[in-house]
Amino acid sequence: MTQNRTDLSRRTVLIAAPITAVALGAAACGSDDSSGSDGGSTGQTSTGQMLTETSKVPVGGGIVVGDVVVTQAKEGEFAAFSTKCPHQGCAVAPKGDKLDCPCHGSEFNLDGSLVRGPATEPLTPVAVQVRGVDVVRG
Ligand code: FES
């Protein structure tokens, strides 16, 4: 379940910036298999845990997996954020090419940056990596 940092450092690419599946697949882990997770996992997530398959994240949109929203602003550019709105903590969700908070109307870009308040801060990034065809937390 836990991997040491040096093991992860080569493969872990994303903290706040989007990553490209093509670059990761070619440079680091193109043929890794994933094990132990199903594609529809929800709820708790931890480092290395599969969040979703890359093919399930719409280009120009995102999907919610538990408390994380995984986005793909451009083909192969994946990012993830906590769904917790920085305003008062409601759960944001994809709405078109934005992430929308239903409580008070804050809106965020697919890179987590703030479009419209009342929130005053961006979404909190979640580190993810593409491992083969999977987006995993890490
Ligand atoms: Fe999201 Fe208020 S909790 S806008």
TrEMBL record:
- What are the entry keywords? 2Fe-2S, Disulfide bond, Iron, Iron-sulfur, Metal-binding, Signal
PANTHER family attached to this UniProt entry:
CYTOCHROME B-C1 COMPLEX SUBUNIT RIESKE, MITOCHONDRIAL (PTHR10134)
**CDD domains of this UniProt entry?**
Rieske (cd03467)
Query: What does the record list as coiled-coil region(s)?
Result: none
Residues covered by the Rieske domain: 48-137
Report the domain of life of the source organism.
Bacteria
Give the region (Disordered) as residue ranges.
Answer: 32-54
Instruction: Note whether Iron-sulfur occurs among the keywords.
Output: yes
* InterPro entries for this protein: Rieske_2Fe-2S, Rieske_2Fe-2S_sf, Rieske_Fe-S_prot, Rieske_Fe-S_prot_C, TAT_signal
Task: From the Swiss-Prot or TrEMBL record, give the protein name.
Answer: Cytochrome bc1 complex Rieske iron-sulfur subunit
What cofactor(s) does the depicted protein rely on? [2Fe-2S] cluster
Q: Which residues form the signal peptide?
A: 1-23
